[in-house]
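Consider the following assembly input.
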Amino acid sequence: MEGAERSALIEVEALEIRRAGRRVVSGASLRLGAGEAAILRGPNGVGKSTLLRALAGLCPIAGGVARIGGHDLRETPAAAQAALAYAGHLDSLKLPETPLEALRFHADLLGGDRARIPEALRAFHLDSLAEAPARHLSAGQRRRLGLARLLLTDRPVWLLDEPTTALDAASTAALVEAMKGHLARGGAILAATHLDLGLSGARSFELTPGPSGSPEAAEAESW
Amino acid sequence: MMRALGAVLRRDLALALRSGGGAGLGVAFYLIFVTLAPLGIGPDPAALARVAPGLVWLGALLAALLTLERIFQPDVEDGTLDHLALAPAPLEATVFVKAFAHWLTTGAPFLLVAPLAGLLLRLPAEATPTLVLSMLAGGPALSFIGSIGAALTAGLKRGGLLTSLLVLPLYVPTLIFGALAVEAAVLGTDPWPMLAIGAAISLGSMALAPVAAAAALRLNLS
């Protein structure tokens, strides 16, 4: 995370994303530094998930600039991706596996630390379920397991797509606690959610459908 | 990077060996295929021995085909593919490891049951070592060439039939040279040129298929 004070962790300028020739996101601009969070808002289908996937390097960028951790996503995608952790709609869970095995796999896959697994399980109240097959987990428990993965690595940028789906109040509080901890360690978070997470100081970033039916991005000045 | 690839290999092997995994299914299908073949062709040993070299390989082809969708489809459906793409290892290397894991769990067991298959099809005993060798030489091509088709159809529900249409034509050289090697052993001629060509196809597919399959998977990501 060196140089994080000077350069922004997430830097997006006039970003344009096309899918099958159609403009999905255009003109999105955003800048988040260390310890900053932004909530991505907008109606269903406006392109929040697409924007997050594009920033994770999972779908191509048609125009503009996106830098993650100071690395250009188009020129040095591997370095940019090494600086981010992504939690999407799917929790990447194999039903025959136990949460412990799933977290071990993800720690190894993403270059995380296996020693942090007990702490990650505790943070999302999963310690008592660590050895239960994942097929017995409820939707909320699966989601918590997907989020616990974030705590295994030191990646400074978190991209969260509707992280509160299926979570109850206590689990949402656990998530907010984890997010606050990440911000305190100098990370940055961009999350799409409809809930008010109660993160103090989080900016709101509004995606609105443009006049031509394509969404235009405008940053709301709500600090 | 090696840590990430090791994790992918271990997970794929563990999932294949657990209940509901693909490891036993390919072999079971293969054995049923070679058991049914004599029932359809008739018990005449001479007639069976004549078609045996082709049948032992055709069975392997179909068994591999049936298990191909397990390479990538579960990862696309549960979102693991996103994390494979974000891992510090190139997607091409990850695809190589996954196709190799597929060979280990479905192709390698054929080496063990091939002698039994030969016996059921009245293949002359002296051709059995060549049969096993031909599966070792040509078998990896089934997994690696198949990984291209599996990657192309990974985002489709019930893409199995489409995978077959895409992959079976590409299996033709492997089938021909595998069967020719076994036939050469039956006829008492030199099987080594056929085995070498089979191995060359496998090595070529190991080098090229991961690039194509990774490109197809990237289309599935966006």
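The longest helix of chain B spans residues 91-120. Ask yourself how this observation constrains the way the partners meet.
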